[in-house]
Automatic annotation (TrEMBL):
Pfam families: GFO_IDH_MocA, GFO_IDH_MocA_C
Organism for this UniProt entry: Paracidovorax wautersii
Domain Gfo/Idh/MocA-like oxidoreductase N-terminal, chain residue ranges per copy: 4-120
Alphabetical list of InterPro entries matching this protein: Gfo/Idh/MocA-like_OxRdtase_C (IPR004104), Gfo/Idh/MocA-like_OxRdtase_N (IPR000683), Myo_inos_IolG (IPR030827), NAD(P)-bd_dom_sf (IPR036291)
Family that this chain belongs to: Belongs to the Gfo/Idh/MocA family.
Name of protein: Myo-inositol 2-dehydrogenase
Amino acid sequence: MTTVALFGAGRIGRIHAANLAALPGVRLKTVSDPVPDAARSLAAAHGAQVAPDIEAVFADPEVEAVVIASPTTTHSDLITRAAAARKHVFCEKPVDLSVARAQACADAVAAAGVACMIGFQRRFDPTFAAAQTRLAAGEIGTPEMLVITSRDPGAPPVDYIRSSGGIFRDMLIHDFDVFRWILGEGGRDEAAWLSATGSCLVDPAIAEAGDIDSAAVTIRTKGGRLCQINTSRRAAYGYDQRFEVLGSRGLLACGNHRPTEVTRLDASGVQTDLPEHFFLQRYRDAYRLEIEHFFAQLQSGGPFRTSVADGVAAQRLADAAAQSLATGRPVVFD
C-alpha cells in the first residue's frame, strides 16, 4: 500500500483525488490546500484527512509520495521540499515558470534519488498514444512533419492570465511536449530553430495583462523535421485538440473526441456532436491513465513516460517562443 498526500483541492486536485481513491494499493491520507473548506470537502469525499500544514506532510513517515496539483507558482518549492524529504513526486505541469528553477528541481530530484513525473497528460490520451505507438512501429515510415491544433473554447479569467506566465508557458507547453514526444524520438532529435508570432484577437483585456490569445509557432529539428502549432483561446464549437503527423509513407491523423460518435444524415445535411467542451472532459481518461502509470512505475522501478527532464525541455521551448514573440526573430538552439 502506497500512502499519498495531495497538494491542491481545486479542479485538477479533485480529478486526481478521485483517481487516487479508485486505485488499488494506493491510500490518499492527507489533502493540503490554503482554502480550508476546499481541503475539508475533498478530504471528506475520499476518506482522507486535512493536513495541518505543509511541514506536517513532509515530516510524516507514512507518506511515501506526493501529488502536486496546486497553483503553478508553488510547484518548484513543493518538488524540492518533497525531494529533500525523500518523497516521490507526481507534479502537474509546468515544473516552474523559470527554466533555471525548473532545472534546479531536476537537480534536486536527481540528488535525492527520488522518482518524479510531470503531468503532461496528453501522452496518455488513448488516441494520441495509439498514434505514437503506430508511428514508432514504422507504420508511416519516417516522420517528417507534425501539425498541432490546440484551441480552447474560451479564455480563462484575466486575473489568472496575469500570473500564468503567458500563453506559451501555460497553454502551449503541452504542445511543445507533444512535439518532442512525436518528432523528438526520445530526445535523439531536438529543436534547432523556433519562430513564434501571435496576436490578441479574443479579448483586449488579455493584451492589457501583457499576453496574447492567438499564436502560431514553427519549429525545425536538428534532423530537419518540421512542426507547426496553431492555438487560440477561442473556439466557438468546443475544445479543439488535434494533430497529424506526415511520414515518408503516409499520414496519421488524430481527431477530436465527441460526447458520442452518432452521426445523423437527413435532408438538411450531416450532423454530429460538437467536440468535448473542455479539457476536463477531453482528457478524463488520460488523467486516470497517467496516475495509474505513475504508481505502476513506482512499484516496478521502470522509467516514467514524462520525466522532470521533459518538463525542463518543454519549458525551454516555451521560453524560446516568448523570446521570439518579443523580438520578432527566430531563436536558434545550440
